[in-house]
Design goal:
Elements: E1 2-7, H1 11-22, E2 27-33, H2 36-46, E3 50-54, H3 62-72, E4 77-82, H4 87-96, E5 100-103, H5 108-119, E6 124-125, H6 127-137, H7 142-156, H8 161-171, H9 176-183, H10 187-201, H11 206-216
Parallel strand pairs: 1-2, 1-3, 3-4, 4-5, 5-6
């Protein structure tokens, strides 16, 4: 069972989200909050697997709550609910340790599949958000792309060939078990590789590692792929 704390300041939105999540027998919404501070308290009280947080809430917003939850309750992953108009928040949420980003206006099935991926230890970026990030990464001018892409490549070059294989599958949002099945190795070995990848890339979580892979051109469509 995937235990969820849901936080959004709009009552109707929370009701809609609860209805979507409750339709999946593997998900249990164990608490609801109207702001980030209340969400942090609920996480401390109920130890959910995932805190599903809206970005913009009065008082303590989703970004502040993300940083607090990941620092104080590392056993709880954070998934951010966002919109196309809130791209600027994504970088801050990444630095705060969020494990996933889902569009509030997206397909409900995407929300559920994203939560399942994160619950299995994976990372999840809504495809639309991933494409938007790639576009933004590539839209800052040639000099900026080359500088950022070069720095990302230097970090990715620290990885072994097997670690690069694992990193590419991380960008697909696969869990350790799924990566192990794809590569024909045991999940324990994948866990070791993931820890090494995060350490060598100086990435806080799998989402940050995936963004670096895009920047370095390791994944098709990344802003540096044409420069390699």
């Amino acid at each position: 069972m995937i235990r969820i704390v849901l936080a959004d300041d709009e009552t109707m939105v929370r009701a809609g989200m609860r209805a979507i999540l409750s339709a999946d027998a593997a998900i249990d919404v164990v608490g609801e909050a109207a702001d980030g501070a209340e969400a942090v308290e609920l996480v401390g009280e109920r130890s959910p697997d995932i805190a599903l947080l809206d970005v913009q809430m009065p008082g303590t917003d989703g970004l502040e709550a993300t940083a607090a939850i990941t620092a104080r309750f590392p056993g709880t992953a954070v998934v951010i609910l966002t919109t196309f108009s809130e791209d600027a928040y994504i970088a801050r949420a990444l630095s705060g340790g969020a494990s996933g980003f889902v569009l509030k206006t997206g397909d409900p099935r995407e929300l559920v599949s994203g939560l399942h991926a994160v619950a299995k230890g994976g990372a999840y970026l809504s495809p639309e958000i991933a494409r938007r990030l790639i576009t933004e990464l590539g839209a800052t001018g040639t000099a900026g792309r080359m500088s950022r892409g070069g720095a990302a490549r230097e970090r990715v070059d620290r990885l072994s060939a097997r670690e690069r294989d694992v990193l590419v599958l991380i960008t697909e949002g696969l869990s350790n078990d799924e990566i192990a099945a794809r590569l024909g190795i045991v999940p324990g070995t994948v866990k070791v590789h993931v820890g090494s990848i995060l350490a060598r890339l100086d990435a806080r979580n799998r989402v940050q590692a995936a963004i670096l892979a895009y920047e370095a051109g390791l994944v098709a469509g990344g802003p540096s792929s044409s420069e390699r």
